[in-house]
């Protein structure tokens, strides 16, 4: 009987099983990465908008609660971010003083995760 070169069926099945187990482990490890990236992006957007609101107040402008962040200022501040575009996040709530349009706070939440900002900066909870 001649010996032929090659792999046996058992060897091939073992290799396929190992590849399957490794791919399952990889999928489980990376499944939360997309939501974590979304949460970080939401935090970054809100944090930058709050910095713009604070700059608006420093410049003597008026902070708005929606739409454009600032009016009556030479600072180009853009608009408040739409946090609902980030999966699972609710609308951004912005609070300004009753007189003078001074920025007080901004917050958004996604279940147990939240972003809370004041003139002292932003904090994230549950990330």
Radius of gyration: 25 Å
Distance between the termini: 65 Å
Domain count: the total is 1
Percent of residues in β-strands: 15-25%
- Mean pLDDT equals 82
Shape: rod-shaped
Which sequence of SSEs, written as H and E, runs from N to C? HHEEEEEE
Compute the number of helices.
2
For the secondary structure, the number of strands is 6
Secondary structural class: alpha+beta
As residue ranges, the low-confidence spans are none
Please give the share of residues in helix.
Answer: 25-40%
Main sheet: strands, sense, barrel: 4 strands, antiparallel
Describe it.
The protein has helices spanning 9-30, 33-58; strands spanning 62-63, 70-71, 93-96, 103-110, 113-118, 121-125. With 127 residues, it is α+β, with helices and mostly antiparallel strands. It has one domain. The protein has a 4-stranded antiparallel sheet with strand order 3-4-5-6, with helices on one face. A two-stranded antiparallel sheet has the order 1-2. The N and C termini lie far apart (65 Å). The mean pLDDT is 82.
Secondary-structure topology with pairs:
Layout: H1 9-30, H2 33-58, E1 62-63, E2 70-71, E3 93-96, E4 103-110, E5 113-118, E6 121-125
Antiparallel strand pairs: 1-2, 3-4, 4-5, 5-6
Characteristic key phrases:
127 residues, alpha+beta, two-stranded antiparallel sheet, rod-shaped
Summarize the structure.
The protein has 127 residues and is α+β, with helices and mostly antiparallel strands. Helices cover 38% and strands 21% of the residues. The chain has helices at residues 9-30, 33-58, and strands spanning 62-63, 70-71, 93-96, 103-110, 113-118, 121-125.
């Amino acid at each position: 009987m001649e010996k032929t070169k090659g792999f046996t069926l058992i060897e091939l099945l073992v290799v396929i099983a190992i590849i399957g187990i490794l791919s399952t482990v990889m999928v489980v490890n990376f499944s939360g990465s997309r939501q974590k990236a979304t949460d970080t992006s939401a935090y970054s957007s809100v944090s930058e908008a709050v910095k713009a609101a604070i700059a608006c107040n420093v410049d003597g402008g008026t902070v708005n609660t929606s739409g454009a962040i600032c009016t009556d200022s030479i600072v180009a501040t853009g608009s408040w971010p739409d946090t609902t575009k980030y999966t699972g996040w609710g609308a951004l709530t912005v609070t300004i003083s009753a007189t003078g349009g001074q920025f007080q706070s901004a917050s958004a939440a996604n279940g147990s995760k939240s972003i809370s900002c004041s003139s002292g900066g932003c904090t994230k909870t549950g990330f």
